[in-house]
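pasting for the record
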Amino acid sequence: MVGKFNFGSVFWKLAIPIILLFTITIVALGFYIPQQIQNRAVEGATSASKQTAKQFKVLRKYYVQNILKKVKAGSNMKPSINHKNDPNAFPLPATMIHDLSELLKNEGTKVNLYSAYPFPNRKSRVLDSFQTEAWDYLVNNPESVYVAEVEKDGNFMVRVAVADTMVAEGCVNCHNSHPDTPRAGWKLGDVRGILEIDNDISEQVAASNATGTKIMFALIATLVVIVVAIYFVYKKVISRKLAVLNSSINDLATGSSDLTQRLDDDGRDEISALARGFNKFLEHHRVFIKEIVAAADQLRNSSADLSNVAVQAKENSSEQKNQISMVATAINEMAATIQEVASNTAAADESARQAREETSSGLQVVEDNVRITNALASEIEKAAQVIQELKADSQGIGTVLDVIRGISEQTNLLALNAAIEAARAGEHGRGFAVVADEVRTLASRTQESTIEIQEMIEKLQQGADSAVIVMDHGIETVGNSVKQASQTGESLGTITAVVNKISDINAQIASAIEEQSVVAEDINKNVVTVDNLAQRGDEASSNTALATEQLSRLSENLSGLVSKFKLD
């Protein structure tokens, strides 16, 4: 039987209360029904005994009124206790009761008449406890009935006692005037004796016990039938559905990921309702897992795109770093050139001073000055060429910054999209959201650094433009100096004037060179700053690439987990 040793099963939870209820009912009825039958038998015997007592009293009254009086009046016969052997005697009313009791003894009814004041012929009789208790009770309650149930000689007896009272003046006079009377002074209503009727109800008691036994066996049989019926109903209906439900739940608990399976939910019972709820649970999770699968696919694709962008950003950052290194080298070369120009300018100034002092060798000085001026013009042209290259390089840096700015904007946009997708993924996308936010922060910082570099490059270009203008002016001035130096061979005064002019021009060139040196130094510092920013951008690109790689692995793991579920 199902649940034979598992008393926690549903079957035993249904069967045990019924078994206990029937057991209690059987035990209760086993005591109640026989007792009730016995009580009815006692009540019946009591009622019959009371009726018998009334009948005896009616007979005695009839005997007194219609026989005893007439016999005494019409003959010499007299009432006597010992009337059996005396042809002139007839029984007293009480004697008649005793005689009738002896006759009815064999019929199952025993009648006793006794008193606490017996006549001499019965003085030796001793009253038992029931008779004594009945006398004491009925003397004080003559209208009542005293009943007791006793077991005697293996038989169950009902003893009923009623009071035998003085109901007529003739009875009172007879008992008061009788020579053998044990007591004088009787009056109407006194209890003269006790009329006891004993009924044997052993057969009724045995029948009640047998009936109780039959009822108990019938209830036991009914209990067995009910338990068997419950068992078959449980096995055919409840156990089968519970087994299917338990199997499905165990499959899910042990790793089965088939979310397309459904339980049989036909019917209106609680198990069918539970099956319908379980089916709704499976359907809800199937839809939820499908959404997770779609999100995982989208996350995988987005992580791949972000990885490509990160790789491209890293390459662009490396290229930017290389370009900035080249700019730094060019700036250093320009600074060296500026220093050389400054040195040459100082030499030219010294030559002009010597020209003023050595007017005696004016022609030679003029020739030297022409030569020096030509050299200066050549150096100025070189400086101008270097500045032009610096300007071109700064424009190239601006182009690189535009590329970096575009990459930063694209990275920021991709990070924003990744954050949106992470928010859709909920708890599973929290880590990806943190990475996306970090990428967006790095992109914003890259944009800010790019703007700073752009501003520095613009300053550098402005300084380069100024330097070009100064260099052009210097070249023009040097050219004029050469022309003037060529024409000053005639006059030392003219040479002196030209030398003074050259000295002034050299002073201007020295001032311009000094300013250019300061600008070059600022450019060099800015380029160093740009280089540091480029290195930070390269590190950020590396971190972004690492984060996207981790994100890709997470998306692959998520796809692997959700792919275990059977959804269609």
